[in-house]
Amino acid sequence: MDIFFYNTLTKKKEKFEPIEDNMVKIYTCGPTVYKDATIGNMRTFIFMDNLRRVLKYNGYNLKHVMNLTDVGHLVSDGDEGEDKMVKSAKEEGKTPEEIAKYYTKLFFKDLELLNIDMPEIICKATDYINDMLEFVKKLMANGYAYETSTAIYFDVSKLDEYGILSGIDVRKQKAGARVDVDEEKKNPYDFALWIKAPENHIMKWDSPWGPSYPGWHIECSTMSQKHLGEQFDIHTGGVDLIPTHHENEIAQSKGCTGKIPARFWMHGEFLLINGGKMSKSLGNVYLLKDIIEKGYEPLVYKYFCYTSHYRNKLNFTWDAIEASNKSLMKLRESYRRHLEGNEDVEDDVILDYKNRFLKAINDDLNMPLAMGIVWEVAKNEKKSKKFAELLLEFDRVLGLKIDKKDDIPEEVLKLVEERNVARKEKNWQKSDELRDKIQEYGYRIEDSKEGTKIEKIK
Ligand code: AMP
Ligand code: ZN
User: Fold this and answer.
1) Which of 2, 83, 369, 446 pairs as cysteine with 453 (C-beta 3.0–4.6 A)?
2) How many angstroms separate the alpha carbon of residue 32 from the centre of ligand 1?
């Protein structure tokens, strides 16, 4: 079945086909490892996971690169302020390497907890300093870069077009229109490729322009080219990267090879908190850890992310997390019921569900629609192992561990069993006592026509 993705470059949904037969090459902008990754960041990596899983489900092999930014990402996207790594190192009294190591470890832990399928190649910027230098030298040689007293800049006026992703019209921007324009910059949109290090700057390397360090954008152009070649299939990141970081990556690659590096540019929309931005000053920066501390399993957050399409904003509230928790537990329970069922289901029915699911995920990763189909299977009146198998197959895309059992401790399961026996024997007193015992373990029991439901009490 054909796959369609929305391409930020063409602003259209387009049919996706890889450059090379069965191999999809992807580059994802990873985190800047200077602080804890938020649940906002995690939404973007859940989108990345979704993309990987959908492509694999369609039978493709992947070569996927994700970087870790451990140098050069300045506090402001306008090439101003301190390097985020250096700033964090100073604040925490550690070296930038220690900071990078610490936050990288935490980041990986979150990805693991969210059952995120990992890119084949993960690379950190500081391991590619020489390659980046070569890239900048090439841009210099090709006439796309110039030196000032503080940095090496990319000259956007040398390109036939700058701003294709975000639709910026550079001619409408007069020099000086940006507040803090460096006076030596030729055009307001020129950006730093390489930055000369002040006297006591911690992270710096020798270069033809003295001790210095790379700009943020050059790392992604360099690492993607090194691992995936001059042109690859898909580039991903959050929407905030469109107007500066990705625009500049395109500029750099065009200056180096004459080509736009990726054919498809896919961007995940932002997570909002109670309808607004997540920010330290508002005290509403949430980490996955906070969700876990409230007693929820991390995958509840992943389930929550599927309630909205990746190109729509998603609003985080604790009520929505509670609702997602209930849904995920119910989904697993429905799976178990099907697994125990012995009814027969015609192959056509299964095939129809499969086709509709595939159509949904192949339509620009329409997860809310796909989840609707998952629920139709889960809720089907007929209890059949075939449906359980089907749910597990869908879970290759969802990554929700639908067959996870260990939510309910063995002791509780035993008590439930005992209670079922007591009920069969119409020993209501014993059944009630067992219900109370189960409650002491923090689980609630609900009896219905379809059987006994066990639910964690919050
Ligand atoms: P950073 O570590 O700031 O470079 O961000 C890592 C990734 O998370 C980038 O792709 C950002 O676009 C993305 N991101 C940052 N904040 C949010 C948010 N609130 N919602 C979704 N994605 C975000
Ligand atoms: Zn990047």
Assistant:
1) 446
2) 9
DSSP for 242-255, written as a single string: IIIIIHHHHHHHHH
Task: State in Å: Cα 238 to ligand 1 middle.
Answer: 5
Using one digit for the tens of pLDDT, what is the confidence trace for 327-351?
999 999 999 999 999 999 999 999 9
Give me the number of domains the chain comprises: 3
**Which residues does ligand 1 sit against, CB inside 6 Å?**
29, 31-32, 40-41, 43-44, 237-238, 240-241, 268, 270-271, 278
Going from the Cα of 264 to the center of ligand 2, the distance in angstroms, rounded, reads 15
Question: What is the domain extent for residue 277?
Answer: 273-398
Average pLDDT over residues 46-53: 98
345: β partners: none
Mutate which of 76, 240, 265 for ligand 1 pocket (most atoms within 8 A of beta carbon): 240
Among the candidates 210, 240, 268, a domain finishes at: 268
User: What CATH number is attached to the domain comprising 135?
Assistant: 3.40.50.620
In the chain, how long is the greatest CA-to-CA distance? 88
Whether residue 404 lies inside any domain: the answer is no
**pLDDT of 416-449, one tens digit each?**
989 999 999 999 999 999 999 998 888 888 887 6
How does DSSP assign 272-299, residue by residue? EETTB---GGGT----HHHHHHTT--HH
Q: Is the pLDDT of residue 179 over 70?
A: no
Assigned domain for 403 exists: no
